[in-house]
Design brief:
The protein contains 19 helices and 17 strands. The chain is an alpha+beta fold.
Length: 723
C-alpha cells in the first residue's frame, strides 16, 4: 500500500462524506485546474523537450527520420555521447558536496543548533536513503530543468510510520501554470499522475464498504482528453472489466490515478487568549459562532475579535470520479517538493544544461557521419568516361577503378600526354571545411554548457599547472550556481517539512541514532513544540570538491595555530580531511584511546615536576622558619634593652632622691627626715636590680650557638653555648 500520508483513511472518507453534496463541483474544479495546467502550451512543450533531453542524455541523439535518411544514403549511423559524461560530471559534484540541514531555536541571545532535532532529521534521511533519491532528482534538474521528491511517512509496514523520501519522475508531475518562483514555492496546486495496478488503486482508495467503487471509477480517462501527447508513462485508455475478459487475474490491469494537492483560504478569527493575554488565539468560523452563542446566553459582551484568513492544505485522489478527499499529509506543506534549474522567462518553464547542448551534439554526430562517408567514398575516385572509349572492358574497369590495389586496363591511346605507359589512380582530396565544422560543433559543447574539459577530468594543455586547473574548475562551479542554488532552497523547504513530521508524528519516544564524537547513541525522541526553529543549510559548494578545498585552506593555517589546538579540536578538524570515513574513525579512536591510557614519559615528567614542586615548598617553609627565628631573637633583644633602660631610669630617680638637699619647713627649719628608712628600702631594691643586671650582662656576654635544620642546614634559631 502506497498510502504514506497519515495512514488515516477513515478521516479522509469522513471528510468525503461531509462534502458529498459538493463532490461533483469539487471534482469539476480539480479537473479544470488539471487541464489548465497540463494542457497549457508551456507545459506541453516542456514535456516534449524533456523527453528529448532524456533521450540525448542516454545517447539516443538521432531521430528515426535522421536514421532512415542515413540508411537510405548508405551512410554510417554514428553517435558519440558527450552529453552523458557532462551530466555525470555535474551530478557528481552534488554527490561529492552534499549539504547538511540544521535546526536553530529562534530565541534571544546566542543560540546553538538543536542536536536532537538535527540528529533526528539525519536519522530520518538515513532510514530512507534520502541522499540517493535527492541525487537522482538533482540529475533530473541537470537534464530537463526540474526534479521532484516526495517526503512522507509510510504506514504500510510500520503502523507508527516509516520515514520516506523518494524521487518522483518529473514527467509525472503537473504544477500550477501560474507559478513563477524558483522551486514552484508560489504554486497553489500540483498533481501527480501515474499508472498503477487496479489492485493498488483499490488499496489506496477503498471507498465506503457499503458503496464500493467500480473498477472503472479508478481510471482517470480524462487526463489526456485535450492533448494528443500523453504524459510520461501515463496511458489514459479507459479501463473496464469487459476489456479484461479471458484473463485469469485482473489485478495487474493498469489504471491512471491522479493525486491532487492544493491549498485554499478559510476564514478565521483572532482574539486575545483569556488564559494568556500575551498570546493570540485562532478560532475557526464554527468555533467563533459557538463562542458567540455562549457569551450571548451568559449575557456577557463578546471579546473583540479580528477576522482574517489562513491557508489550509488539502489532498484528493481522482479517477473518473472523486475517490477521496482530506487534509494534506503535512499541515502547511505540500508533500511534493520541486528542484528547479534555469528559468525560461518567456515560456515560464525551467531547463537544464542539456537543452543548449543538443544542437552541437546533433550536428557533431551528423558531420561525423558525413566525414566518414566522404572518407569511404573518396577512394573510388569517381570519373566520367565514354562507354567503350576508355576502359578495355567497361564492367571490369568500373569494378577495379575503385580499388587502388588492382590494375585497371584502358584502351590504347586512352592515356594522353608524353606517351605514358601507366599512371597513378587519382585520389580525391578530403574537404577541410567538413572537418572544421565537425570540430567546431565538438568544441561548442563545453562552450554552451559551461562545463569545461577540466571538470571532465582532462587538461586543456599538456603543461597546464595544477593551480590553473583548480581555478578553471572553480569557475565552472560559479557558472553552475543556479542549479545548486535551487538545490539549497529545496533543502530549506524540505527541512521545514521534515521538522513538522518529526515534531508531530515521530516525537513519540521512539529511539533515534545520534552520532557523537565518540560512539553513536540511541536516545528517545520527545516532542518539543514550544520553540520555533530556523532551518539552516550549508553554503552551496564553490569548488569541484568542497572538502578538498577546505582541507587545503586548513593546511595553510594549521602550521601557525596547530600547537595551540587541544586534541578535541584536532578531532573536529579530522572530518574535513579527504581521508575515508573509516580511516577518520580509526584515527579518532586511536587518539581518544591514547588520551585515556597513561603515557610513561608523561608520568615521568609529572613525577619530576612533583619533586620540584615539593622541594620548592620545603625551601619556602625553611626560609619561613629562619625568618621567624630571627624575628623572635630580635624581639627578645629589644625587650632586654627596654628592661635595662627601665631599671636605669629607676636607679637615676633613686639617686636623685638620695642626693637631693633637705627640705625646709614653713618655719624655715629643716623638715623631719624620714630618709633613713627609705634609703634602706632603696638600697635593697638597688641591690636586687644590680644582681639582675649582672645576670643579664652575663647572658648577653655568654657565648652563643646557632641552631640549623638537620636536612637543609639553614639557621632556624640561637641558643647559649653548652658547657
Amino acid at each position: 500500500m502506497d498510502d504514506h500520508d497519515t495512514g488515516d483513511a477513515g478521516a479522509r472518507q469522513e471528510m468525503a462524506r461531509e462534502v458529498v453534496g459538493d463532490a461533483d463541483a469539487l471534482f469539476g474544479k480539480l479537473k479544470r485546474w488539471f487541464k489548465r495546467d497540463y494542457g497549457s502550451e508551456a507545459q506541453t512543450k516542456w514535456r516534449t523537450e524533456a523527453k528529448e533531453d532524456y533521450a540525448f542524455e542516454a545517447g539516443d541523439q538521432l531521430t528515426d527520420d535522421d536514421k532512415n535518411i542515413l540508411k537510405d544514403m548508405n551512410r554510417p549511423i554514428v553517435v558519440f555521447n558527450r552529453i552523458g559524461v557532462t551530466v555525470d560530471s555535474v551530478a557528481g559534484q552534488e554527490v561529492a558536496n552534499r549539504q547538511e540541514v540544521q535546526f536553530l531555536p529562534r530565541q534571544q541571545g546566542a543560540v546553538k543548533k538543536n542536536e536532537l532535532l538535527t540528529s533526528a532529521a539525519k536519522w530520518f534521511r538515513q532510514q530512507c536513503d534520502a541522499e540517493d533519491e535527492e541525487s537522482d532528482a538533482f540529475r533530473d534538474v541537470v537534464v530537463c530543468g526540474m526534479g521532484w521528491t516526495e517526503t512522507c511517512l509510510d504506514y504500510e509496514e510500520n503502523p507508527e510510520g516509516e520515514p520516506r523520501v523518494h524521487r518522483v519522475d518529473p514527467l509525472e508531475m503537473v504544477w500550477d501554470s501560474g507559478a513563477k518562483k524558483r522551486n514552484i514555492v508560489d504554486g497553489r496546486r500540483l498533481f501527480h499522475v501515474r499508472r498503477v495496478t487496479i489492485d493498488e488503486a483499490r488499496a489506496l482508495c477503498p471507498g465506503d464498504p457499503d458503496r464500493p467503487f467500480e473498477d472503472a471509477d479508478y481510471n482517470a480517462s480524462w487526463v489526456d482528453g485535450r492533448d494528443s501527447d500523453r504524459p510520461h508513462e501515463v496511458d489514459a485508455n479507459f479501463y473496464t472489466r469487459e476489456e479484461n475478459n479471458g484473463k485469469d487475474d485482473d489485478d495487474d490491469a493498469m489504471v491512471t490515478l491522479v493525486r491532487a494537492q492544493w491549498w485554499e483560504r478559510v476564514p478565521v478569527y483572532l482574539m486575545a487568549d483569556p488564559e494568556n493575554p500575551q498570546s493570540i488565539k485562532t478560532l475557526t468560523a464554527e468555533e467563533h459562532a459557538e463562542l458567540s452563542k455562549k457569551f450571548k446566553l451568559a449575557g456577557a459582551p463578546m471579546p473583540k475579535t479580528v477576522k482574517s484568513t489562513r491557508k489550509v492544505y488539502r489532498q484528493a485522489y481522482l479517477g473518473s470520479v472523486l475517490l477521496e478527499i482530506g487534509d494534506a499529509p503535512a499541515k502547511g506543506h505540500f508533500s511534493f517538493k520541486a528542484i528547479t534549474g534555469k528559468r525560461d522567462r518567456n515560456k515560464n518553464t525551467f531547463f537544464g544544461i542539456v537543452r543548449a547542448m543538443k544542437d552541437p551534439a546533433r550536428w557533431s554526430n551528423k558531420w561525423m557521419s558525413q566525414t566518414m562517408h566522404i572518407m569511404n567514398s573518396s577512394a573510388k575516385g569517381g570519373i566520367a568516361a565514354e562507354r567503350g572509349q576508355f576502359f578495355d572492358d567497361d564492367q571490369d574497369g568500373e569494378a577495379s577503378w575503385a580499388k587502388n590495389d588492382q590494375v585497371t586496363y584502358l584502351k590504347p591511346g586512352a592515356l594522353s600526354g608524353a606517351n605514358p605507359k601507366f599512371i597513378q589512380k587519382p585520389v580525391a582530396e578530403f574537404p577541410a571545411a567538413s572537418f572544421n565544422l565537425m570540430q567546431f560543433a565538438v568544441q561548442s559543447l563545453p562552450a554552451v554548457s559551461g562545463v569545461n574539459v577540466e571538470m571532465l577530468g582532462m587538461q586543456g594543455a599538456a603543461d597546464q599547472a595544477a593551480s590553473l586547473d583548480r581555478q578553471r574548475k572553480q569557475a565552472v562551479m560559479l557558472i553552475l550556481q543556479p542549479l545548486f542554488d535551487g538545490l539549497r532552497r529545496y533543502r530549506k523547504e524540505q527541512g521545514r517539512l521534515l521538522l513538522f513530521l518529526i515534531q508531530n508524528y515521530l516525537s513519540d519516544g521512539r529511539l533515534i541514532k545520534i552520532e557523537g564524537p565518540e560512539e553513536a547513541q540511541f536516545v528517545p525522541l520527545i516532542r518539543q513544540t514550544d520553540v520555533t526553529y530556523e532551518v539552516i543549510v550549508d553554503e552551496a559548494p564553490t569548488s569541484a570538491n568542497q572538502k578538498e578545498l577546505t582541507w587545503t585552506l586548513l593546511q595553510q593555517i594549521l602550521p601557525v595555530i596547530g600547537k595551540m589546538l587541544p586534541p578535541a579540536t584536532w578531532l573536529a578538524l579530522l572530518k574535513y580531511s579527504p581521508l575515508p570515513t573509516s580511516a577518520q574513525k580509526d584515527i579518532s579512536d586511536s587518539i581518544q584511546q591514547s588520551q585515556q591510557q597513561p603515557d610513561p614519559e608523561q608520568q615521568k615528567r609529572d613525577a619530576e615536576l612533583k619533586l620540584q614542586n615539593d622541594k620548592a615548598q620545603a625551601d619556602i617553609e625553611n626560609h619561613r622558619k629562619l625568618t621567624d627565628a630571627k624575628i623572635e631573637s630580635m624581639t627578645r633583644e629589644q625587650e632586654a634593652r627596654a628592661q635595662l633602660d627601665l631599671q636605669k631610669a629607676h636607679q637615676d630617680a633613686l639617686t636623685q632622691a638620695l642626693t637631693a638637699p633637705p627640705a625646709v619647713g614653713p618655719d624655715g627649719l629643716p623638715a623631719p627626715n624620714h630618709g633613713e628608712q627609705a634609703a634602706a628600702l632603696i638600697m635593697s631594691v638597688l641591690g636586687e636590680m644590680r644582681r639582675d643586671m649582672n645576670m643579664l650582662a652575663q647572658a648577653f656576654n655568654a657565648p652563643k650557638q646557632l641552631i640549623r635544620d638537620p636536612q637543609s642546614g639553614e639557621i632556624v634559631g640561637i641558643a647559649p653555648m653548652r658547657g
